[in-house]
């Protein structure tokens, strides 16, 4: 009888675990990004959110967003799973939907999470941040 009761309790616990939605088990947070030093209010800011160093280096973004500064200067991203992320963004001044360069130097305002700008292309190490709670970031466009 004791073995039967133990089996029933274990089976019940197992089925209760299977019934829990996956999202209830992972932490979900919101991210608010405020853009600073916007040059032209009528030109869009394109934002790429990366979830891994491999994707960051290959420019394969996790999610893409567009911010229209004439309407707002912040981007609110809801329901992101806890983890490590990085952001690259630029303001498209000429409307061609890409960041333009002149001799490897950006011609348009750009920025990244953590605002660590140095010589050469941005790195995952410079841009990564941990999302462990609701977070507000300020990204300055250079």
- CATH architectural type: Sandwich
The average pLDDT value, as a whole number, equals: 87
The number of distinct β-strands equals 10
CATH class: Mainly Beta
Q: Count of DSSP helices?
A: 4
- Low-confidence segments, given as residue ranges, are 1-20
Please give the radius of gyration in angstroms. Answer: 21 Å
The major sheet is characterized as: 5 strands, antiparallel
> What share of residues is helical?
10-25%
How many domain regions?
Answer: 1
Using the coordinates shown, work out and report the CATH topology.
Immunoglobulin-like
Topology (elements, then pairings):
Layout lengths: L1 H18 L2 H4 L2 E9 L8 E6 L2 H6 L4 E5 L6 E8 L1 E9 L9 E2 L2 E2 L3 E3 L11 H4 L1 E3 L3 E6 L2
Parallel strand pairs: 1-10
Antiparallel strand pairs: 1-4, 2-3, 2-5, 5-8, 5-9, 6-7
Describe the protein's architecture and organization.
- The chain is α+β, with helices and mostly antiparallel strands.
- It has a single domain (27-140), classed as Sandwich (Immunoglobulin-like), CATH 2.60.40.10.
- It has helices spanning 2-19, 22-25, 53-58, 124-127, and strands at residues 28-36, 45-50, 63-67, 74-81, 83-91, 101-102, 105-106, 110-112, 129-131, 135-140.
- Strands 2, 3, 5, 8 and 9 form a 5-stranded antiparallel β-sheet that branches. The protein has a 3-stranded mixed β-sheet with strand order 4-1-10, with no helix packed on it. A two-stranded antiparallel sheet has the order 6-7.
- Strand 6 (101-102) and strand 7 (105-106) form a beta hairpin.
- The model is unreliable at 1-20 (pLDDT under 50).
């Amino acid at each position: 009888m004791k073995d039967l009761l133990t089996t029933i309790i274990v089976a019940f616990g197992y089925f209760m675990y299977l019934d829990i939605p996956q999202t209830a088990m992972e932490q979900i947070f919101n991210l608010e990004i405020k853009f600073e030093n916007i040059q032209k209010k009528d030109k869009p800011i394109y934002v790429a959110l990366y979830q891994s160093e491999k994707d960051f280096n290959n420019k394969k973004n996790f999610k893409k967003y567009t911010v229209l500064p004439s309407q707002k200067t912040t981007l609110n991203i809801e329901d992101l799973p806890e983890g490590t992320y990085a952001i690259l963004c630029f303001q498209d001044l000429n409307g061609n939907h890409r960041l333009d360069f002149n001799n490897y130097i950006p011609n348009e305002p750009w920025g990244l999470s953590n605002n660590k700008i140095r010589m050469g292309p941005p790195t995952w190490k410079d841009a990564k941040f941990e999302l462990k709670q609701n977070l507000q970031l300020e990204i300055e466009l250079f």
